[in-house]
From TrEMBL:
SMART domains: KH (SM00322). PROSITE patterns: KH_TYPE_1. Keywords: Repeat, RNA-binding. InterPro entries: KH_dom (IPR004087), KH_dom_type_1 (IPR004088), KH_dom_type_1_sf (IPR036612). Residues 10-83, 101-175 form the K Homology domain. It holds the Pfam family KH_1. Gene3D superfamilies: K Homology domain, type 1. One of its GO terms (molecular function) is RNA binding. This is K Homology domain-containing protein. It comes from Genlisea aurea.
Length: 177
């Protein structure tokens, strides 16, 4: 599809839907979260205002404008914020903006061990994150139907000590019988 020449100067626009109840999470206190996502991604993000939103819709439209890469990055960051709001992450999203340099380490874990890492109601993964200060994500959290992968990716983000500590704890969890 070719973009019309009078399109946004910054490139493309994409609409995504987010659950109504999560609009506040994306915007953040005083607009802080959405500002950070815009800064990190370079995309312009506009959430449909309450008055313009369909009161009967379960979702709210969010407009992302920018280059393809910026839009992809913005979508990814929004996804992370939403996952965190669902208790999958650890609320460390804001920590990533504090200017600490963070690294990421990826390890592969057998599917049947993913439950050991997450724990009941996400308790274990929250504890590991709280103890180590690292951020841990399991990708994908739920395998899509028909996916027969034997392993899933565990992403650990933080500084080198945090990653080391989290790596050790995750390894202990998956070697327990």
């Amino acid at each position: 599809p070719h973009a019309a020449p009078y399109d946004y100067p910054s490139g493309r626009s994409k609409k995504i839907e987010i659950p109504n109840g999560k609009v506040g999470v994306i915007i953040g206190r005083g607009g802080e979260t959405i500002r950070n996502i815009q800064l990190q991604s370079g995309a312009k993000i506009q959430v449909t205002k309450d008055i313009d939103a369909d009161p009967y819709s379960a979702t709210r439209e969010v407009d992302l404008t920018g280059t393809v890469d910026q839009i992809i990055k913005a979508e990814q960051l929004i996804g992370e914020v939403l996952a965190e709001a669902d208790g999958v992450g650890s609320g460390s999203f804001s920590r990533r903006f504090s200017g600490q340099s963070s690294d990421a380490f990826v390890m592969m874990v057998p599917n049947r061990k993913v439950g050991c890492i997450i724990g009941k109601g996400g308790e274990t993964i929250k504890n590991v994150q709280a103890k180590t200060g690292a951020r841990i994500q399991i990708v994908p959290l739920h395998l899509p139907p028909g996916d027969i992968s034997e392993e899933r990716r565990v992403q650990i983000e933080g500084n080198s000590e945090q990653i080391e500590a989290a790596k050790q704890m995750v390894n202990e969890l998956i070697t327990e019988v």
